Amino acid sequence: MIRKIWQTILNLWRKIFPQRQPPAPPPPTPIHSSEECEQKFLELLDGVAAGWSRGKIKGFLIGSNIKDAEWENWLQEFESRLLVSPETHLELGGRMVRLGELNCGRISEVAGNIGRELLPRQSVSFPTHNLSATNQGESNSKTESIRQISTKAEELIFQGRERHQAGDCEGGDAAFDQALEIDPRYVNAWNGLGNALNELGRNSEAIAAFDKALEIDPKYHNAWNGLGNALNGLGRYSEAIAAFDKALEFTAAQFWEPWANRGLAFLNSGRYIEAIQNWDEGLQKYLPSNHDYPLACGQLHQRKGQAHYQHGKQTFTYFESFHQAKASYEQAREFLKSPLIPETYLQVMQGLIAVCQSLGDPQTKEYVTEATTVLENLLLDNETHPEIKQRLQRKFAGLYQSEVDILAQSGDKVKALEKAESRKNFCLQWMRAVAAKPTNSPTYSQIRDLLANHTATAIIYWHLSPVSLTAFIITPDKFETIATPVIDIFAKRNSLSLEKWLENWKKNYQSYCETGKKPSQQQSQQQSKESHPWRESMTAQLQQLADILKIPEICTHLTNIENLILIPHRDLHLLPLDALFHPPFFTATTRTPPAKIRQITRLPSAQIAILQQQQNPIAITPNSLLMVEHSQGKSTLKFTQIEAAAIKQINVTHRTANATTKTAIIAALKTNSGIFHYTGHAYHNTEKSETSALLLGNNEELKLTEIMQLNFVNYYLVCLSACETGFTNKGELIDEFVGIASGFLPETNYVISTLWRVDERSSALLTIYFYQLWKQGIQPPEALQQAKDWLRELTNGKLCEWYETDLLPLLKQADFDNIFFFEREASRLQKKLATIDEKPYEHPYHWAAFTIAGNG
Predict the structure, then answer these.
(1) Among 55, 52, 51, 48, CA closest to 166
(2) Which of 41, 627, 736, 799 counts the highest number of beta carbons within 10 A?
(3) 468-475 vs 478-485, strand pairing mode
(4) pLDDT of res. 309
């Protein structure tokens, strides 16, 4: 609609005023033509109508590379044309007013003023708006009143989306409801609500919103496109395709987004050929006269490239498909680079580089240089807001990761490692809410110095790019690298690539977490969880992972090594890598196996270890213990209470630690020192790490952002005996991982945390035994490893003895008020005397989740 209106305006202008010059002078140093500004502005207004957030609009403006002065000069010319045109342009004015209300800089201010000049001149109502009967004879004040009501409703839809994105779902829904109470017949509000719900994954609710918009205006193409996206998200592909057909029908096929989305619906339903044909048809039918023609063609070619690449990874015709993908990406590149559409261009370049790397194409390095130059120019622009710079760096992390690959493959492993470390530290500094002044990322020699005076210690540093996993192995006397394809097209039959393994692991874990949530499932929840494929196949899955990561080959470089420092990257942070260096997963090769690994610690980055050493960490075992225990209602954990009671007797608390509220706990954390032990529930959000939290009483949460504002320099150990401190999801971590444990580093010496929802009984046993070992003088990393070994080998008979000689006396000393529960547990074990040699916690589910971070 907006394109047709503008084309009519332009044609009339040229006929009536062929010789007239724009009243505003051109910029002193013109960079973009009037046609480029026009194309970008109309594309921006399309985005405003589609419900773009402020952040997305600001990102678009940054990506356009058009300065405020250029926008202002061009808009003055634009205004003069609009004000003399006899054509109605109410929709255009409405969008400009909406842009003005979003407060996105000088362009918003100028556009809003122009829009407000346009709207009162009109005597017609908003398109598809049936709030009241209006006609051309009504007054300007009536039209203005309608406009104010509609824009207020639209503003509330934007507020609702932003509140949801900030985690305030209740506030977001309230804003949606308020918007539609103000103007229940405003089609843009219903469409905006549908788009917001789609973004939140609430597809069924989105469908209802789009249906309401289409009830008001059956020809509203944006709503048909949104409906198709919602149906696609629910797997209702045939209905989605029909909805996209409607969007194309009502725009005479001149709306590129339904072409793009319709192809995805074909692809998702397994109709790869039809998907390609769909995008080819869109490229043929979309007219070059459209202002967004380069963007449309770039996007459609990009979709083709993605489809060819994914298809190639799943078939034996990968070579042909990869070359088709490369050709499509290169065509997209040509449409997007001149005039440059930066953000979409960079998305295309990331895909093109991944394909070229998979093919071993010599053009890879050239493309990486080209793309990173564009990205760096955006980041160096003083007008780019710092938050936009951070978003761009994280979104296009794959470009930096490809640089690491190229350096490693060329033999420059020192520079490759330094670049990988630099990226890690950028992410960690970005996450720390009150970080000190950024420090320079360490050099290779500084990383190597971590092994000074540690002749039996080695560092294994992983870097994961879109196509390759590189393991940097640093020992006191050598530096080696081992590369593994993420997408192994030459894999043996029945073997998995790392990409496919991660996909299966996450999918199965998500399914495991959902087990027993429905009321009908709760009675058999424990049994169903124990027999769930994620748990049943864990040993075999982890053995596969050890093979994929080439752990046996890595171990051939660890002769005489007893201590390991693991520095994972991206998704690898979420996996039990420690377990792979111990039975039953380590398989000795024909070469000399390494010495027994006595302890394994993890680090978010090498810089964390260096900072720990610089702050002179506490070297003695502290006795002071701050205990925070959370279990209430149906989530009450009996063994959590046993764990807390026993640990308090092992480590005498010299300070009062009866904090229960969030405020009191934060105050106690500030005044106590030594050990902070949390036992209870936790969760982690890999998409928004800052919202990860430890759950407290009274429905309170101690979020990661709040943890990062505290100083733990007086704490020797933080033990998070809780589930989901390393929770994962189905999506891929495109950049570095920042977990709850990271919030306590580098101040504290060690942080113990878990990788999945652990069993309360086995967790309590392992944790109590760990504290017993530590009390004997064994340092935390080795004590944790011994505790895991003990639990893995523990028989029913040995457990009975330990209950009697170790745990029961501790609970009696503590006057444990649930001693009856413990005695019942002992009675349960007595009944298992026939299976006295059975090892109830041998399965890795019970012990492999526990990890320790820090370098002491």
Answers:
(1) 55
(2) 736
(3) antiparallel
(4) 93
Of 634, 669, 639, 590, the closest CA to residue 816 belongs to 639
3-state SS assignment for residue 675: strand
Residue from 789, 788, 791, 793 nearest 837 by CA: 793
d(CA 46, CA 34): 18
pLDDT of residue 497: 84
- Terminal Cα distance for the chain, rounded: 64
Tell me the torsion sign for CA atoms 640, 646, 649, 650: negative
SS3 165: helix
3-state helix, strand, coil in the chain (%, to 5): 60, 10, 30
Rg value, the chain, Cα: 31
What are the beta bridge partners of residue 627?
Answer: 677
Cα gap 819→816, rounded to integer Å? 6
CB 740 within 8 A of CB 692: yes
470-484 core/surface letters (b: 16 or more CB in 10 A; e: else): bbbbbbeeebebbeb
DSSP string, 523-589: GGHHHHHHTSHHHHTHHHHHHHHHHHTTHHHHHTT-TT--EEEEE--GGGGGS-GGGGGSTTT----
CB proximity list for 220: less than 8 A, separation 6 or greater: 128, 187, 191, 213, 214, 250
* Residues 750 and 608 sit within 8 Å (Cβ to Cβ): no
**Quick one: pLDDT at residue 804?**
82
Per the listing, tokens 């083709």 go with 304
DSSP letter, residue 269: T
In Å, what is the CA distance from 597 to each residue of 784, 786, 823?
Answer: 13, 11, 37
The residues, any chain, with a CB within 8 Å of residue 283's CB and separated by 6 or more, are 297, 300, 301
Cα 93 to Cα 6, 61, 669, 825, distances in angstroms: 11, 19, 55, 73
**pTM for this one?**
0.77
Q: pLDDT tens across 337-354, in order? A: 888 888 899 999 999 999
CA distance 339 to 32: 9
The ranges of the chain with pLDDT < 50 are 1-3, 5-6, 8-10, 12-30, 85-88, 120-149, 433-436, 519-523, 588-593, 632-635, 655-657, 725-730
C-alpha–C-alpha distance, residues 337 and 346, integer Å: 10
Q: Provide the 10 A C-beta neighbour count for residue 275.
A: 22
Tokens of 345: 């261009």
CB count in 10 Å sphere of residue 327: 15
The pLDDT of residue 712 is 86
Unique residue bearing structure tokens 């203005």: 144
**Do the beta carbons of residue 748 and residue 718 sit within 8 Å?**
yes
Q: Provide φ and ψ at 314, rounded to 5°.
A: -105, 0
Q: Residues for the chain: how many in total?
A: 856
| Beta-carbon contacts of residue 343 (< 8 Å; ≥ 6 apart) | 59, 60, 63, 392
CA 310 to chain centre: 21
Within 13 Å, how many C-alpha atoms sit on residue 702's CB side? 30
Question: Degrees (nearest 5) of the Cα angle 448, 453, 459?
Answer: 40
Token duo for residue 779? 């340092």
